[in-house]
Protein 1
Amino acid sequence: MLLEARFQEYEGSWYMRPVMWEPPEALSAAEQAVVKRIKRAKLFTFLRRKRRELFSAAFQEELATLYKESERGQPPVPPAKLALVTIVQAYTGASDDEAIEALTMDRRWQLVLDCLDAEQAPFGKGTLVRFRQALIARDLDRRLIERTVELATADEAHEVNPRHLRAALDSSPLWGVARVEDTFNLLGHVVRKVLGMLARQQGRELAAVAHEAGAAAVTGSSLKAALDLDWDDPEQQTLALATVLDAVQAVEAWAAAQATDESPVVQAALATAHQIETQDITVTREGQPALIDGVAPDRRIAVEDAEMRHGRKSKSLLVDGYKRHVLHDLDRKLILAVGVTPANVPEATVTDQITADLAHQPFHLGELHIDRAYLSSTLVRERPPDLHISCKAWPVRSGKDGHFPKTVFTLDWAAGTIRCPNDVRLPFQPGATIQFPASSCTPCPLRARCTSSTHGRSVAIHPDERLLQELRERQQTPAGRAKLRERVAVEHTLAHVGHWQGRRARYCGRRKNLFDLRRTAVVQNLHVLMARQHDAPEPTTITGPAL
């Protein structure tokens, strides 16, 4: 069994290159007995049989770039083992502590990691945490998805074009893990956090430090209970806000007077308080602090996660956290790329992430199925001529008082003109609003059915109006509607991803949650491979990290 090495970090890499992990391919008698007992969590068996293929020598060399060669120290734990543990964690939902415990308590984990009946885990929690940090820093978690795709395409059937890609893109909500609070509690949380850090450094009780700093009133377990005010009274709300702001200023002044090694951390926390003040608080004419009416566009909603945001998935579904995006291969049924965005950011912004990840794979995107949220993306706006977009177009309804809808106006793309039902022609540009002159509309015999404006009829042309026009024409045919239904496959994939990852984020911050989504995508892809090669059932729920 390899000993856990001591690591030093330098420029994002570790000293000491690891040895190649070469676990046996054939099942031992003891392993065969374990395999026979696994009835539901079949991915353990699949990983045991495919681990050497998944973590090939070439891929292990890539992972070894996380380390720097050195002649000193013990050989690090093979990164293939650590990567395998991160995948099994996504499958079981196990934390780092639970994973280390499972390596000595769960024979399924031991089967996969080649440590059957081990009395001690082959590595510690710190090694797993540092590996994850290095994997994220070097963006090698993306390669985990790509390896599953490489395995699937190595021997794919000839009826699938090896380069042509038909994909569907969609998203689902991912609620943040940090606590969402109102302005009063956000500021109180920052005060308690700063005083808690200083109290730990000085070896004192929080209450004593808070009293000395002049902020004892806001450091209780419940800020609003400690203030004990009538929160329905606007005057008392103003008093409470002033009290909290005074506490922030007092703590900031007291912290500045302390000589502490944690000053950068303290300053970062106080910067959070200033951010909250700027976004949520204004000063009235009387010089009193007051809450801003409305919500700031990019409002911070949690102290512990700076990137969580209020957002919407639909008119009725509010999200506090993030949105996860999945690009699903319609032919191979694999997840090729994923993305995570704050909940308040339009879905279309994720396509830059998706395109960058897809560029590392040997595919040419020829057909993209999306919903309307992605129509404004750069992937659609700047698409090559051979990229076919499939999407349900925005409906065009009749105007006010039953006036002609926009679709009765004919666009001549070759001539760059728009023609009204009365055969009046004007030049147009995509993205512009065309105003027909009143001199043409007033005497028009169709005026009553077209407009009631004294200025004449106006028609807004979408920047991608030609595509929308094509989409509307397609969905009027049975073949076009059948094509639209193909996008349902990505919704099923998102349901599987939600099953493995859960509805709530595991980590704080977008990048860590992207790592978690990527390894979840690996789990889903492995199930697709397992079903394809072994005719296995659909993914099943498992009850926990250990038997």
Protein 2
Amino acid sequence: MTVRSAKLSQLIRNLSLVTEREAWPEGTIRTWGTPPNDYQVKKTGKKWVRVVGNRDGGAEKPDDPPNRPDTGDDSKSDTSAGPVEKRRSEKTSRAVSSILRGDLRSAGYDIADELRNRGLRDADPPNSGKISSSADEYLAAVNADGKEINADAERSWNGDITLSNKYTRELTNYFKQSRSSNTYEEMGRGKAVVGLVHEILHGFTPATSSAYEGVGAKIEEVSTEMAARELAEDMFGVEDPKSLGNYPHIIDSAVAAAQKLLMEEGAEHDHTKAYHRAYRLIKKTSLRYKKRQNRLTTQSQVSVMFSEDLASELQAETGKKFSVLRTESVLNDFLHSTDL
């Protein structure tokens, strides 16, 4: 039994985001469906693989989205150095150059070094550094229910990362194309950048493979995706894909938990404002959690540590005292109600 259906959950998210940067050209609002590109997980012996994608093999686009602008030819590159390019670090700039050359492995090394410079610690085991692109448009994979799906990316516990040909193309096109407007196509390619950072971030986490089950697995994916959105925006200037990103339903549950805590303590009374604050808090909590130096071996340890960080961020945001026990209880209630 779930707290609310996936369609209702998506509708609530869409309605709550219209006051931010979700307005489309000529005043239209994106209220049509979004791609359900949830990460899935499969277990093959002792090897776990995280998989990105959906069964139909990619984004669900409407037949006639409102005022969708023409983005032109993806082969055209934007050679001008805008504000984002000028503020990139040496390593992120080098990573972009490597991506444009098709050298994903070198890009991965530079992104990993940048993450270390930002205070993140290698997981146990660390990333292997091997990032490759498949010749296949989508990767054949199996989801948690044992069903075959078409995936965009996969990562094994030894740190090897494989991107589909489609994902690699979107990744490259993001840095080729002029990013002057927040179009559907642009955000789709930007999602590929977030996805690459996401997979590399799995190699920077306090949780070990034994903690990747139950609520531990859900927190690992929420924290990794939300930290990736924050870092990709800061490192590469990628717009937060929000509902177009990975794990929309489980992230919605984590945000709903923080939203409930804010309103429960009287720190916010408006539902929409509470949602926006909660979304930002989950991003900050995720990055804070990712920087922990602990080695967490059980899902209960992961739950406690993430809840401690969330309670601390809530207190810093509002000046009110939040109980870690209550924070963990609310968080787990929402996460348990949603499938990974």
